[in-house]
Amino acid sequence: MSMKNQGVVVQDIARADAEVIKGLAECGVATVHEAQGRIGLLASYMRPIYAGASVAASAVTISAPPGDNWMIHVAVEQVKAGDILVLAPFSPSDAGYFGDLLATSVRARGGVGLVIDAGVRDIKTLTEMQFPVWSKAVCAQGTVKETLGSVNVPIVCAGELVNPGDVIVADDDGVCVVRREEAADVLKKARARLANEEAKRQRLAAGELGLDIYDMRQKLAAKGLKYV
Amino acid sequence: MSMKNQGVVVQDIARADAEVIKGLAECGVATVHEAQGRIGLLASYMRPIYAGASVAASAVTISAPPGDNWMIHVAVEQVKAGDILVLAPFSPSDAGYFGDLLATSVRARGGVGLVIDAGVRDIKTLTEMQFPVWSKAVCAQGTVKETLGSVNVPIVCAGELVNPGDVIVADDDGVCVVRREEAADVLKKARARLANEEAKRQRLAAGELGLDIYDMRQKLAAKGLKYV
Amino acid sequence: MSMKNQGVVVQDIARADAEVIKGLAECGVATVHEAQGRIGLLASYMRPIYAGASVAASAVTISAPPGDNWMIHVAVEQVKAGDILVLAPFSPSDAGYFGDLLATSVRARGGVGLVIDAGVRDIKTLTEMQFPVWSKAVCAQGTVKETLGSVNVPIVCAGELVNPGDVIVADDDGVCVVRREEAADVLKKARARLANEEAKRQRLAAGELGLDIYDMRQKLAAKGLKYV
Amino acid sequence: MSMKNQGVVVQDIARADAEVIKGLAECGVATVHEAQGRIGLLASYMRPIYAGASVAASAVTISAPPGDNWMIHVAVEQVKAGDILVLAPFSPSDAGYFGDLLATSVRARGGVGLVIDAGVRDIKTLTEMQFPVWSKAVCAQGTVKETLGSVNVPIVCAGELVNPGDVIVADDDGVCVVRREEAADVLKKARARLANEEAKRQRLAAGELGLDIYDMRQKLAAKGLKYV
Amino acid sequence: MSMKNQGVVVQDIARADAEVIKGLAECGVATVHEAQGRIGLLASYMRPIYAGASVAASAVTISAPPGDNWMIHVAVEQVKAGDILVLAPFSPSDAGYFGDLLATSVRARGGVGLVIDAGVRDIKTLTEMQFPVWSKAVCAQGTVKETLGSVNVPIVCAGELVNPGDVIVADDDGVCVVRREEAADVLKKARARLANEEAKRQRLAAGELGLDIYDMRQKLAAKGLKYV
Amino acid sequence: MSMKNQGVVVQDIARADAEVIKGLAECGVATVHEAQGRIGLLASYMRPIYAGASVAASAVTISAPPGDNWMIHVAVEQVKAGDILVLAPFSPSDAGYFGDLLATSVRARGGVGLVIDAGVRDIKTLTEMQFPVWSKAVCAQGTVKETLGSVNVPIVCAGELVNPGDVIVADDDGVCVVRREEAADVLKKARARLANEEAKRQRLAAGELGLDIYDMRQKLAAKGLKYV
After folding, report:
1. CA-based nearest distance A58→chain D, Å
2. How far apart are CA A136 and CA F142, in angstroms?
3. Are D and C touching by the rule of 3+ CB pairs within 8 Å?
4. Residue A204 CB burial class (10 angstroms; 0-12, 13-18, ≥19)
């Protein structure tokens, strides 16, 4: 749901550093989510329309009426290379706000995807285009163009606050938002985590147990775990 | 849910013209839905069991008891080449009414798929057979053969009225029903829409904005949209 | 939900015969479920993270707190070749209890998969590893390691009782549990069913009707079915 | 969902006999539903906003856009004494289409309630007014007045076809629709059922078993029921 | 879901001591659930049909087909004074298995209520009778009498194992099952808990903080809680 | 979900003027929501535990782990007269975080209620106390006290951003949040709306139509509405 009066388009938003965004894409959702202290995850009903997509991008946010996709057209003009649209309806809607024509337009502006707490359609063509979308529903239901919303205002999308310019990381595990101003720091932590994980993976693959690697046996015993 | 007393099989139903049906298949769900005035879409929880299937076919309707698939056997005998089974239970059920044996039988009669507001099973084999199913659930739960339903009566399937002989259009975006007697007219409108879309696509791909192509700026301003 | 006081690890559990388990894997979920009298099916919201996986394995059960995956580490030590982890939280949770590191560890012990009435993450890597998971959700949400649960106690997972050592059969149709002591008998019935189905398939493919093959016409007429 | 092109108000609809409607109200939803052969029940998510209301009335149907209640104002003019509004949105919506002002207007025209496959608000005042509403949701979310729908066209409401002038029976058990032309016949059957039930009730209250009253023991034994 | 072959009625089941059952009723669901180690709670979608009912009773269990209430008639004969029916369908169903006639019959046998992982109807009369029901749904949908189930076998109801003769505690907070053989011990712990709570209540009502009463400040500080 | 690192208690928060808050309570949720431009409504699954409660109060926010109610004890110390607790878990949970003991403590501090995007228990006692709670679930499931969250940080509760000190308006229609700094202005608009509504109500009660009062006929005709 939206948190601002409707009818506003903010044209000038700050974005995170492109190298930082690229780095976050390589880390993936689960690692980034952990690295920033287990916050920022959108609701797990947000699913990709095809498997294998993995992006990080700057959010161009859209607050839109239920069943009305007018503001997406407004938002496309605000898209710069490396941006992703993030849409939250004022109230719940499964309608199909977005299809292959809009994707063509977004891509022509340099945009790289869509996160939408509502429906999407033209799935087959979007998949062929390899234009990634994370959505609540796949639904062909058409929308109208009657009521204003806003572009580039803070929104709550799938249970999480997203500010314009925040970094969206999305892959097969879901969608995570990273505050723009914390992105560089989160990347540093995420990379440290990945390095640490790689070492762990090799020990686990060799048959060592997490119980030993993470030194859990004593703590479990202290809590009262009994082997019978 | 059903709208007629149970225990009736209507054997002689009218179907739309085969060329019209073929044409609707080429247009796809989203276009057909728009072309007929944004009506006829089944609920978005109806999902295909595998990606990429796309059909249009004449509905052989089944009104069936919850957890009882007896009437599918009755319906198969009514299937002609180019038909699709459309099943709605009297009351909600996720049971697995349909599997690869029934699909084999439907295909042997010339049938091309199934739309079911309930469950389906043998997904792997159905996928190998490329026998498309749109369903509410994938569920192995077996069914009984105890209670009558009806075949080829009007049903409400996933929130939409389906008459026997109506045209079902189904693809990755979901399922849409077109009234038999309106099918030719809808096809005409759908093709016009596609032609129009192709021109739009090229302009959008070239970087033109929907705001300009659809001449929206003035209307947005009139509604009070503010750029800041 | 759990049915025992927490904090217990049962180390010595009986398992079904390896040949029987292998046989059940070949039969698949729908056939096994029917063969044992249409029982044992977990709720249909349990879905595989990728299509095509098909396993049968001995259950190592985990009763775990919501949002706390500590006991998975404990359970991994109990895994023997041919085992599958089966986790039920005390109360509903969609959190991502399990990812690629734990999968690496389970595989190193000879384990073959996971059934979890909660969330899983690192989907892309798990798919690349071809490590099958059946879950209620895909969710990157991290978990804590604070509270004890139990390993190898009877649990209710997705609506079905699972005892340690029971045989889990899982494929694209869902997940079915077979009691360890009934596994050999169920296999016999499942194989008989498959043999019978193959004969039916050929007749159906040749255009014969289920109405005739299963001799249904008289019974339908007796129930009052009318052809009009 | 709607089944007609939008933008039409049908002003002259037939209604069932007032005495028949009154009789159906006295029978209640469960009895009427059974009397007409277990059909006509709307989805069970349709719940009354307060307990104890029980009505039968002629349907004035509304096909409305999601989140847009304009057509309710249009429909109120069509309400005659003894009518009930029945609204289905084109696509799913939980918005609060209806509140105490509209209820005041409906009542002033002689209308007796609302059935809405969407949301309602001003629950407290509606309860004080004893104006009954059966809805999918209670939700204060405001609606717009931008897009046309239709009044007095056939609609599918909560999974069931409702024609204008059909009789709606609604109480604490839910909502049932009776075809206008079948209403008198259904009433006759419902009354017979009630008379029969009263005799059964007295025998059951005296301790007789349904097993004996309905003569079930032999049929159960024939099916193979075993007492151990 | 059921865990036994169908078609069996177990006539002779053990029940807990009547005084113990009475004591558990006085403690209520939340206290009993905590007293037995936070286990035994049925899923929270199980809601009472009216507020204020509070019972404890011995479970007479029913494993029933979806949409088929035949076995309830069989079960009523097995009801003794102080029993409660507990029904789980083989696969999910919202149908209205139970109404006022069956309630009259159950009450005539001394039964005190129903817990059903499906639907119930005749809510108004059941409320007037003060016959308590905890259910997943209120639904007038009628059921058939065609297929066998079982009575007094272990069942999984709303996610929890219930054995015949287990004690069911149910009130406005939901439904909890206590193993028959543990009932006396759980009662002892529940009463101790209540006594302890009463003292706490008075201190809290006087304005003391849980932080101090439960001595939490140090532990919170140790975990790193910061006041700013 | 939370938007800050955990483990922080903000002790000094600003609150809106007490007279303004009182005024908002008198206006109710639907009117306040409209008055501030149809924003601020929490998801409609947030329902009161009993009918008739109506409050406006200053939010003391709680960001809590799933199934862990430790931070409520911390938050109670921060409650001042006229405050309401507003809790959002990090990830979805239905557990029963709150019962009559905590309510006793909150009330002793002058607190007036709870809004919780999770479960609550001891419903019967809370109702007797007339301590209002709006929640996602009623659930007796106990919680632990193991992991830190935060108090008085911005949270997203049921899809809406809530800052500490924002005004919560809640009644039978649901829950609405008003920004602290906008509260006086929203009250002014809400009162104007109420005054306007009263005049409308009298005209509607006298039989005038909204079509005429709101001057809709011309606009409907312009959109193409046809009377047949």
Report:
1. 30
2. 31
3. no
4. buried
* Distance in Å from the first CA to the final CA of chain B: 52
E strands, C10-163, in order: 47-48, 55-64, 83-89, 114-120, 133-138, 150-151, 155-157, 160-162
Q: Tell me the CB-side half-sphere exposure of residue E143, using CA atoms within 13 A.
A: 26
Q: Which of D4, D90, D159 sits opposite B1 (nearest CB)?
A: D159
Question: Are residues A173 and C8, on separate chains, in Cβ contact within 8 Å?
Answer: no
DSSP letter at F43? P
* Closest C-alpha to E56, from E13, E128, E100, E113: E113
Q: Are E and C close enough to touch, i.e. 3+ CB pairs under 8 angstroms?
A: yes
- ipTM, interface predicted TM-score of the complex: 0.94
Distance from A146 to chain D by nearest Cα, in Å?
A: 7
Cross-chain CB nearest to B140 (options C54, C174, C197) = C174
Is any Cβ of chain E less than 8 angstroms from the Cβ of B160?
no
With CB atoms and an 8 Å threshold, state whether D66 touches A93.
Answer: yes
Inter-chain contact F156–A154, Cβ cutoff 8 Å?
no
> Digits of tens for pLDDT over chain F (228 positions)?
444 457 999 999 999 999 999 999 999 999 999 999 999 999 999 999 999 999 999 999 999 999 999 999 999 999 999 999 999 998 899 999 999 999 999 999 999 999 999 999 999 999 999 999 999 999 999 999 999 999 999 999 999 999 999 999 999 999 999 999 999 999 999 999 999 999 999 999 999 999 999 999 999 999 999 999
What's the gap in Å between the CA of E39 and the closest CA on chain F? 8
* Closest to D1 measured CA to CA, from D159, D145, D137: D159
Helix (H, G, I), strand (E, B) or coil at D63: strand
Provide φ and ψ at B13, rounded to 5°: -120, 150
- Stated as kind and residue range, the H or E segment containing E226 is strand E226-227
3-state secondary structure of B134: strand
Helix, strand or coil, per DSSP, at residue F199:
helix
D158 at interface of E, judged by CB pairs closer than 8 A: no
Whose CA is closest to F154, among A160, B14, D19? A160
Helix axes F18-27, F183-205, angle to 10 degrees: 30
Contact partners for chain E, using 3 or more CB pairs closer than 8 A, are: B, C, D, F
Rounded to the nearest angstrom, the minimum Cα separation between C26 and chain F is 38
Q: Are E209 and F76 within 8 A, CB to CB? A: yes
Say yes or no: F186 contacts chain C, CB-CB below 8 A: no
Give dist(CA A28, CA E35) in Å, integer: 43
The pTM of the full predicted model, rounded to 2 decimals, is 0.96
Smallest CA-to-CA distance from A67 within B51, B209, D149 is with D149
Asked if E147 reaches chain B (Cβ–Cβ under 8 Å), the answer is yes
Contacts of E11 in chain D (CB under 8 A): 227-228
**R_g over Cα of chain A:** 20
Helix and strand counts by DSSP (H, E) for chain C: 8, 12
Indicate contact of F with B: 3+ CB pairs under 8 A: no
